[in-house]
Design goal:
The chain is an alpha+beta fold. It has 5 helices and 11 strands, in the order αααββββββαβββββα.
Length: about 180
């Protein structure tokens, strides 16, 4: 929490869960607390955890496999849990080195062993658009956007309790895509 918006990008690069500007807005604080709750959930899931090297992710990452025409099977760490997810329920896929974090409606995000290039080939191009090098979003799942600063915009999705922060370039690309649609 700070009164200085200029350090937001640096904070996220260092692994911040969120970045709250003073004076504190109660709704914004509630979102942050939801994120912290998700980050502190038991270690059995492969979500909201990031490390500095691929070895750490490799221990936490599940697999994305058994693809069909309209679903993907996401397995958790060491196959302890499995989710069959419809492509229509995926709201975003975010690159994390050679892995990806998949967020679907009504579910926790999953870190899986699949590259962005693989996701781009798999997901329907009519519904999913790449808004930055590391992010693919389902445009129709976006409920609203909220400008935070010139370097950060929050995306809110249907069925996902927490927003997704994006940078200036991704926000500009998203605005362009939404105006064309």
């Amino acid at each position: 929490m700070t009164a200085h918006e200029d350090y937001a990008i640096q904070a996220f690069r260092e692994g911040a869960v969120d970045y709250i500007l003073k004076p504190v807005d109660r709704d914004r604080l509630a979102i942050t607390l939801d994120r912290l709750d998700a980050a502190l959930e038991p270690a059995g899931s492969a979500t909201e955890k990031e490390g500095d090297d691929a070895g750490e992710w490799g221990d936490e990452a599940g697999d994305a496999s058994a693809d069909t025409a309209d679903t993907v099977t996401l397995s958790g760490k060491r196959g302890h849990s499995i989710d069959v997810v419809s492509y229509a329920d995926i709201v975003w896929v975010e690159a994390v080195k050679n892995y990806s974090r998949v967020q679907a409606r009504g579910r926790r995000s999953r870190l899986v062993r699949r590259t962005m290039a693989e996701w781009e080939k798999l997901l329907p191009a009519t519904a999913f658009q790449r808004v930055s090098r590391s992010l693919v979003v389902q445009l129709s799942a976006i409920k609203s956007t909220q400008w935070q600063s010139r370097d950060q915009t929050l995306l809110f999705f249907s069925g996902v309790p927490h927003p997704l922060p994006i940078g200036r370039t991704a926000a500009a690309r998203l605005k362009e895509l939404l105006q064309l649609g």
